[in-house]
Design a protein that fits this description.
This protein has about 400 residues and is α/β, with parallel strands linked by helices. The protein has helices at about 50-55, 80-85, 95-100, 105, 140-145, 160-175, 190, 230-245, 265-275, 370-375, 385-395; strands at about 20-25, 35-40, 65-75, 110-115, 150, 180, 195-200, 200-210, 245-255, 280-285, 290-295, 300-310, 310-315, 325-335, 340-355, 360-365. Helix content is about 25%, strand content about 30%.
Length: about 400
C-alpha cells in the first residue's frame, strides 16, 4: 500500500489507523525556518480509539487553549498556456512565478489549503489541456514551495488520465513529502485511512469529495481511486474522523459552474455535513466565487461554509473568472472541554492575472492589485478593472465578514 503526502510508503495499517503529521511549529512552506515534518502510524484497536474523553485525560490541567490559523484558495487550473508559460525549454517546468506574489500570505498561516483542479500526472504521460487535462509534476513542487500544506485532488478532472494519472500524481506528492493529500487513493486500504494533520497538539481530520468525473466512470473494483460525494460513505468517513481527531474539515467539489449562488443541493449537503459534526466546509468547482457564511445544524453544530473559492490560477478568459477568494480563519481548541471555535474569518479576494498573448500567468491578492496591474491584464479591454473586481466581491460576499482589498 502506498503512503500519501508525508505518509511513509509501505506502512500496513488497519481501518482505524491514524496517520499524523507532527509539526514542530507553524507550517511555513518554503520559509527560512521550515519545520521538519515527520510521519507516524498508530494502530488503534477497537475499544482503544482516541476518543475526546481519552484525549482530555491525557491533557494536563495547565494546558491552555491554542489557536491555529488557516487559509484556503480555489482552483489551481493548469491550462496549456499556463504550463507553456513556465516551460524551461529543456522539457522541465518551474511554476515559482505563478505564486510569487501570494506566497508570503500563504506562508503566514499555520495551514494553507489549495484545490488541485487538474491531475498532475507529469510530462511522461503527455501533457494535455481542456477538456481532458494532464499537468506537469512541477506544479506540485511549486505549490509546496509557495507554502501550501494541504492539497485536495478530488475534482471532476481527477480521472482525466485514468488510474495512471492518479498514481503518478500520488507518487510525486509522496516523494516530495511536504503536502498532505486528500481525495484520491491507490487502494481500498488507503481510501479507508483517516487523514489527520496535527498542529500545535490539535488533530485536524481532513477529507475531500467530488460530485463526478465528467462522464468517466471508475472501474468496477477500483472505486477507491477518487472520493465521490456519497452520503453513506461521507457519514462513515466523518464518523471515523470524529474518533481520531479534534476538528474536522471537509473539502467539497460541488455546485454549478459560473453561478454565484450555491444550489439547493449544496446547501442541503452543507447542513448534512454540519449535522455530522464538520467544523469547516471548503467548496470548489464553480470557477467563480460564491458566498461564505456560518450555518448551524440541527444538533447545534456551528459550521463555516465556503461555498466556492473560485479560480486561483487558470487561463479562463472571462472577467468574473479572474476573481478568486483566499478565505482566512482561525480555530481555537480548548483541550479541557474538547470544544473548537472557528473565528477570525476574513475574505481576501485574489486575482488571476495574465497579460496579452496568454503570458505572465500569476496570482495576486486584490489588496496588492493596483490600477496599473489591472490595466495590463489581458481582459482589461473586456471590462476588467480593479473597481470591477471590488464591486463583484462586495456583491457576492456581502458584509458578514471583512473583505480585505
Amino acid at each position: 500500500m502506498r503512503g500519501f503526502g508525508v505518509y511513509r510508503r509501505g506502512l500496513a495499517v488497519c481501518l482505524a489507523a491514524l496517520l499524523v503529521l507532527s509539526l514542530a511549529g507553524p507550517l511555513a512552506g518554503c520559509s527560512a525556518q521550515q519545520p521538519q515534518i515527520a510521519a507516524e502510524a498508530s494502530s488503534l484497536s477497537s475499544g482503544s480509539t482516541a476518543s475526546t474523553d481519552q484525549r482530555q485525560e491525557s491533557v494536563t490541567p495547565a494546558q491552555e487553549p491554542v489557536t491555529v490559523t488557516f487559509c484556503a484558495v480555489g482552483d489551481n487550473l493548469i491550462h496549456g498556456s499556463v504550463y507553456r508559460n513556465y516551460a524551461n525549454g529543456d522539457g522541465t517546468y518551474d511554476f515559482t512565478g505563478a505564486y510569487e506574489h501570494t506566497a508570503e500570505y500563504i506562508q503566514s498561516v499555520d495551514v494553507a489549503y489549495i484545490n488541485q483542479e487538474t491531475v498532475c500526472g507529469g510530462s511522461e504521460l503527455g501533457l494535455s489541456d481542456y477538456p481532458v487535462f494532464n499537468s506537469p509534476h512541477e506544479v506540485i513542487t511549486a505549490v509546496a514551495d509557495a507554502g501550501f500544506d494541504w492539497i485536495s485532488t478530488s475534482s471532476n478532472h481527477a480521472y482525466d488520465y485514468g488510474e495512471e494519472g492518479i498514481i503518478s500524481q500520488l507518487d510525486f506528492i509522496e516523494a516530495d513529502g511536504r503536502l498532505i493529500q486528500t481525495g484520491t487513493n491507490d487502494s481500498w486500504e488507503a481510501a479507508a485511512e483517516p487523514r489527520v494533520l496535527e498542529v500545535k497538539g490539535v488533530r485536524f481530520g481532513l477529507a475531500s469529495y467530488t460530485y463526478g468525473l465528467n462522464g468517466f466512470e471508475l472501474p468496477a473494483g477500483q472505486e477507491y481511486l477518487v472520493n465521490l460525494i456519497d452520503r453513506d460513505r461521507i457519514a462513515e468517513d466523518v464518523a471515523l474522523l470524529n474518533e481520531v481527531s479534534d476538528v474536522q474539515i471537509v473539502s467539497m467539489h460541488w455546485g454549478v459552474e459560473y453561478v454565484y449562488e450555491p444550489t439547493a443541493e449544496q446547501v442541503e449537503l452543507a447542513y448534512f455535513l454540519s449535522d455530522l459534526g464538520v467544523d469547516v466546509i471548503i467548496g470548489s468547482h464553480p470557477h467563480v466565487v460564491e458566498p461564505t457564511t456560518f450555518i448551524t445544524g440541527d444538533n447545534g453544530q456551528r459550521t463555516l461554509v465556503i461555498y466556492s473559492l473560485g479560480n486561483f490560477l487558470s487561463a479562463q478568459d472571462e472577467p468574473e473568472r479572474m476573481l478568486g477568494e483566499m478565505t482566512r480563519w482561525s480555530v481555537t481548541y480548548d483541550f479541557a472541554s474538547g470544544e473548537a471555535t472557528v473565528g477570525d474569518v476574513e475574505i481576501w479576494p485574489t486575482v488571476n492575472h495574465l497579460r496579452p498573448g496568454w503570458v505572465g500567468h500569476s496570482t495576486y491578492l486584490l489588496k496588492d492589485y493596483d490600477d496599473s496591474l489591472a490595466a495590463g491584464h489581458m481582459l482589461a479591454g473586456s471590462g476588467l478593472s480593479r473597481q470591477y473586481l471590488i464591486s463583484l466581491a462586495e456583491d457576492v460576499f456581502g458584509d458578514e465578514f471583512p473583505i480585505i482589498y
